[in-house]
## 1
Amino acid sequence: MTLNPDMGALDDLATFARIEVESRDVEPWADLLRHLYMEDGALSLEAALWLVALYNTYDSLGSACSVFARWPSPHELLTAADFPDSAQYECTQERRNLRGGLVLTRHASYGALVMGGDGTQAYWLGQGIPQPDVTTDCCDTGGAEAAWEPMTRHLRRVWGVGRQAAFEWAEFLAKVVGMRLTAPHAQLWESEGPRRSLQRLYGNPDPDRAWLDEAALECRAWLLSQGIDLSWEDFETIICDFNVMRDGRYYPGRHLAALREEIDGVAESALRAALEHAWEQVVPPEWQCIDPGIDKAKLPVYRDSGLIRSSA
């Protein structure tokens, strides 16, 4: 099996990955929610699971927090007379399949599955792990890698949840509430962005699944040799974002800038105050001053100059 590594690009990938990890720009939404639940105790388990589900639905923390504030549980949302209002909140580009009111179908599907068990999200989510111990909460059950694929299949029972949404939902369940889930691979043969990144890094315009697996293992090992130890979940994110940066549509700090804008859009409340505190605790001080919103002038910098930004 032939791999033709572009060593210049791989060196830049290592630089980029190191900045992303150190700045907490990889998946800061999960880091923030984890802090609210694990460190600050600002959320119960059910509240944390609901916020995770809502964030996965809208792909916007602002929308998720707005829905959470009005309807603090799936049951309260589905039984509310103003349930249709939940369609008025933005679904970002990543969840464009739920626009036009289709988000209501997803909410109804998830709520029906949850209420079809004992009424808690912890119980229903726990059913996605092989042989769950339903006498405890969902965070205490299953084996991490063995549970990943059954859990992502389980999550795809919710209407509108495809491969990417299920992968990200499982990732957040692990990162935010500590559910024992770890991706055994990056599912690259089903992806687009990460797959294209590997094709470009290792020179294969038409790879098969075996080649993608080999390239992923090689690339992850290369990053580890440079002192960057990534889970498969973070590896998938980083190689995808690196490829987007090569095309002039990403820069280190883009996720943090988007998150900062979303926090600023949350109405003044106890939840907003908790988010602000979590931001201060999670984001490194040198990145906390980042301007809210994606800076379009920074997007093409690497593509046009080869410079990888390393500050806010």
## 2
Amino acid sequence: MELWAKIGDEKVKLQGSMLAVMEQLLSLAKEKGGQAQLLSFHAGQKERRRLKRELRAAGKNLVEAARNYVRWSYQIEARKLRRQIRELKKKERVNSKGIRFLPKGVQKRIEQLQGQLSQVNEKLANL
């Protein structure tokens, strides 16, 4: 996605995935006063539709549309991580003495995923 916007009195060009562009837009708007005006954008069909839908929902406020999209994206990521953790916890086994344990490597993977989940939750809280 490529997006041209006027933030404050400066024109900026943002490129990358839709999530990266929206994150950059939020950070620039936060630095330079909070108002942004959409000049033009080029993207694939799905991204165009999504951006237009977000703009309609936010009353044509580009910063609010970007915040909503980023929040939605982080929520999806958090759900995905929680689901992976839940599925890995189902791999718990019981040995012959009745002691429950997780197979080798599963506990480390769960800890990694929980770390990623805490990072995503922190990003969500900072929006």
## 3
Amino acid sequence: MLRSVSLFGFCFCLGLFSCGRFEHEGKLSCLTHENCPKKHLCLEGVCKPGETQASGETQGPGENPPTEPVCASHEQLCGESCVNTQTDNAHCGECNHACPEGSFCQAGSCHLEPQTCPVASQTFCGESCVNTQTDNAHCGECNHACLRGSSCQAGSCQPEPEVCTEQQKRCGESCVNTQTDNAHCGECNHSCSEGTFCQGGSCHLEPQTCPVPSQTFCGESCVDTQNNNAHCGGCNRACPGGSFCQGVSCQPICPGSQTLCGASCVDTQNNNAHCGGCNRACPGGSFCQGVSCQPICPDSQTLCGASCVNTQTDNAHCGECNQACPGDGFCRGGRCTCSGSKSLCQGQCRSSSDYLFDNNNCGSCGKICRRTCFLGSCP
């Protein structure tokens, strides 16, 4: 044994062997593969014939593969070392990917060196200072994000509290109306004393029983919150100018010719959705005119009453609405015409014999005889 050690030291001094390699009992000892000659591997501390295996090659008989370090689940083998590529500055994200000077590895990527946060309660995460007690993206520590439906409270993710309405305020774990809540009157934790109640955000003496069931005690009096402009839908909910209380809500005051339908002022004389009254809609193919639905007439027709007519040929509406032709006449081209030898005179179809004895139409239509018309002439 002493002989081999002496020989090793002697050979080392002479430069006949590389450092880390020496002969023992006829075998060349080694520490790594680099200590062995070509086509040899360092196996179990001794150089043995063999080569590093390429992909797809098979080993020769009697050869053992070189042993490699076994890395932990969160580590990766880079060269001959196991490293955490999430935090290792020389192998950030992957092997041999080094972070440049002035940066550090965090979560597998290089970041600028953290600055000192101006607020003692803050932590530098990524590129900014955050409060890990309340930050949803960095809750308790950097990059620990809270899931949807939860929020960061005191450094841990907690279920989201209920969402308060505009009229409510969060007091502890509950949403309350500080205008009416006896335990939180006007502000959280300000409770009304016994014998008083919360109204309009201040404590009042207990109300008296109103004589009418539909009334509510507001301040010092009983009111109907269905139509009271100062207490519309609830005590102290006043309607602004230009509106009035109707059905617990403030509605606009409509001009004299208009009617309030829903929340809008409309003219029921010509509104297709509210024709003659609220919510009385005209059906398709009609329109509102004079509080009633009328049909929409084709271009060649005119609306007379509730009907579309052709005033060029309609005997009841000849030339215009309600201009009727006589019973023995007919409408042609918008004018009443008589059949046969008759002629139209003062709205009637007359024959030649009708002019023989008519003082108002003596001999012809419209010729007046101040005496007695005889055989169409006035003596």
